[in-house]
Every structure is written in structure tokens, then in C-alpha cells.
Amino acid sequence: MDQFFDTFLNWDYIWQVFPDLLKTGLANTLILSASSAVIGTVLGMVVAVMGLSAKRWLRWPARVYTDIFRGLPAILTILVIGQGLATLARGLVGTNPYPLGILALSLIAGAYIGEIFRAGIQSVDKGQLEASRALGMSYGKAMLLVVIPQGVRRVLPALVNQFISLVKDSTLVYFLGFITSQRELFRIGQDLAANTGNESPLVAAGCVYLVITIPLTHLVNYIDKRLRTGGKVRADTELAAGEVVKA
Fold first, then answer.
1. pLDDT value at position 93?
2. Which of 45, 132, 139, 214 is 20 to 30 Å from 30 at the Cα level?
3. Strand, helix or coil at 11?
4. CATH code of the domain occupying 2-246
5. pLDDT tens for each residue of 83-118
6. pLDDT score of 92
């Protein structure tokens, strides 16, 4: 038992690594995750709309993209983009792998978020689109103003869950060899663990990840509860209105 605590809960090493975790690691993890979440969300919406298009030349590229980036291991995608494309993109990013790490995470997130959006949009009753078209809206306007907002609202819990996964996937970019100022939480903990032969710095990094992910998990539960409660209230209101009309 003493050996376990000394290996994984050595407070000397934990306090030693915490300043770097909070100053450098946390900042870079949030930048990687937030940037990838924003880009991935925009990309995912485009992919979802393309995938639902009646035009094959739009639908097939979206399907191929989704299948590839959902089918490949995340680490392989990061290595191919971060190292394989580095020679092609050297004119844009130089030797800095940071933007390529964000690009890789964004492409991975876009594939999953696209499927989430597609499922949400398809769950909206077709009558909503037909009613909007009957009111004179174009297909694009009806989708943008009526169908898509309802679909996104229904998949908010799944979307936040994907953001949580993205935070954890950001640990994989350490394979790209970021410089000291670019290291994220896991890399900082791993470096000190490798130098000391003690795993406590990694445990400290894991605690910081929990500080990020646990509030997001509770946010998922809160959103899901509100959606369920709101749906019940709307259903009861519609039922009461129907009874009044019949009376």
C-alpha cells in the first residue's frame, strides 16, 4: 500500500508539477479543445447538411469523409496530418505542428459532430419542413430557420458529450512533438513522470482533466433534464389546448 501511494500519490511531485499544469498545460489544452470544437462544429454542420442533400455529388463526399475520419484511430489521423502534411503545409505553418494538431482534432470532431447533427435534423418531423414551405419559405430558409434549430436543440446532450471526448483526445497531440510552451496537460505530466520514474505527475494531470470534464458532464445532465421537462410541459400544454378547443 505504501508503495502504491508513493508511486501514484507522491505529493512532492504533485506540487512540483502543478504550476506548469495550470500555467501551460491547462491553457494549451483549452486552446486545442476550444479551437477544434468551434471548427469541428461548423464543419460538422456542413457535413450534416451535405449528407442529407438529395444531390448525390453533395451526399457522397460527406459520407466518405465521415466514414474515413470515424473509422480511423484518432492517433493515426493526428500522425498523418501532423507529420504527413507537415511537409506540404510548411509554407503556411513552418515547422510549427500546433495548427496541424488543431486541424487533425477538428477533422475528427467534424465527422462525429456531423453524424450527431444529421441524427438531430432527421428526428424533426417532416411536417415542419412541409409547413414552412407552405408558408412560402424556400427549402434553404426553412432548413435554416425551422428544422436545423429544432434538430440541434434535440442533440445538445450528445454534442456536449462529444466536446468532452475532444478534451480527452487532445492528449494525443503530444505525438507531434510540441515545444515546451505548447505542451498540454498530459505531456507535462508525462515528461516529469519520465524524468522521475514516478507516476504522480500523471495523476495530477488527470485531476485537472477532471476539473474540466466533470462540470461538462453535469451540464449534459442539466440540459437533458431541461429538454425532457420542457418537452413534457409542451405536451401537456398542447393536450390542454386541444381539450379546450373540443369543449
1. 61
2. 45
3. helix
4. 1.10.3720.10
5. 877 677 666 666 678 888 999 999 999 999 999 999
6. 67
Tens digits of per-residue pLDDT, 115-159? 999 999 999 888 888 888 888 888 888 888 888 888 888 898 899
- Name the pTM for this structure: 0.85
Here the cell at position 191 is 515528461
Report helix angle 56-71 to 98-123, nearest 10.
120
The C-alpha angle 56, 62, 64, rounded to 5 degrees, equals 100
Cβ neighbours of 70 (radius 10 Å): 13
Report how far apart, in Å, the C-alpha atoms of 58 and of each of 63, 128, 178, 213 are.
Answer: 9, 23, 37, 35
- CA dihedral (210, 39, 179, 80) positive or negative: positive
Give the single-character DSSP code of 176: G
Specify the amino acid at residue 31. Answer: I
Q: Which triple of cell numbers denotes residue 107?
A: 477533422
C-alpha 179/C-alpha 148 separation (Å) is 41
Cβ atoms < 10 Å from Cβ of 130: 11
Domain spans of the chain, in order of start: 2-246
Give 95's DSSP letter.
T
- Helix or strand holding residue 184 (H, E): none
Q: Tell which residue, 171, 156, 183, has the closest CA to residue 212.
A: 171
